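Protocol step 4 of 6: structure prediction from sequence.
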Amino acid sequence: MALSKKEMRQVATASLIGSAIEWYDWFLYGTAAALVFNTLFFPDYDPLVGTLLAFATFGAGFFARPLGGIIFGYYGDKLGRKTTLIICLLLMGFGTFFIGFLPSYEQIGVWAPILLLLLRVVQGIAVGGEWGGAVLLAIEHAPENKRGFYGSFPQMGVPVGLLLSTVVFSAFSALPRDQFLAWGWRIPFLLSILLVATGLFIRLKVMETPAFLQAKEAGNQIKNPLKEVWKTSKKDIFIALGSRFANDASYYISNVFVLLYATQYLSLDKTLFLTGVSVGAAVELFTIPLFGALSDKVGRRPVFMAGSLFFVLFSFPFFWLVETQNMLLIWIALVLWIAVGHGATFAPMSAFIAERFDTKTRYTGSSISYQLSGMLIGGPTPFIATALLSWSGHYWPIALFVIILGVISFVSIFVASETYRKDLNTVSSQNNEPNTLKTKTN
């Protein structure tokens, strides 16, 4: 039974808010890794090595994300999307909350970075299960001709989470440095518990998705979704994986690495960049649903490929604008990078990936595809970019790194079949040829 417009708005809102809370927690760590953790948790090393170690713990969360995708993908395909999402939200919230209480290296020695690493792994497992569930909550409820639009709502949770985390962290980073390092940086992490309570209240009100309920009633569930999706949908997994490379790398270049580059190598005020990132995230709140709706009209592939090509063409100009050290030009670079490039690749991504898998393996297939890219590209990107900068003393290898990944993404999407007009209950992921996918008739 189709949902009313009011019910669909409630589902979209629940998907957006829950996703935003998860990403608020995730991005807080990235900002703190660039500005705080190298000093408080790795103080015995020179600034560059301390930063590399902080980024290594940042990347550890990405290595835990595929594990979260496997665990929660299994339960999401067996027990349902709603229950799994609630567990993910609680896990992420408590992991972030306890980071706010962590003693520093000065207080407990080597146990400080060890505990930091463990809590980052908890965050990674939670995010690994969150994305697939939030996306399916929206897409499996949405009308066929609006899956790209409604599927963009959980994607909007990323800029909302980034905006919230950046604004909150910026507010406390304005404190005198000794106060900020002593207690100010902890408050944004502790505030997470309030957001989790809000998200939990909203998600408990949302019903299970029709596609999952239909599959459950028909007995169309399997014992091992991971084994099944690997057996039947390898090509889809690799297509989805490669399609994300440019998007993943570009986002952590602009929101994590460039913050380090600007403050430590260009000696610019961190507030300048945090403000620019906030503006970019705010603009992306409008571009993501626009690109999502556009993908419902022209298809996922054209929008997705255009965004990937943008990163290929804009990679060097982005760094040229940053190098000017002019506030307005830097903000323009960040807004274009985040709102246009990332928006165009991120908006159609949810539907592009989810539509490639059957209901019985959709949570697992979507989660694994998405999270493997995070592990291989997203997490290591700040570390790789910092190492490349240390090696070359220049941004050119980093820009080239993004260009290579942009080409990989473009090709991955180009060879994929289009799925934007397919019935989610009849899509078979065993064959990618367009004429083998059952299309809904008028």
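Step 5 (inspection) to follow. Residues 47-78 form the longest helix (32 residues).
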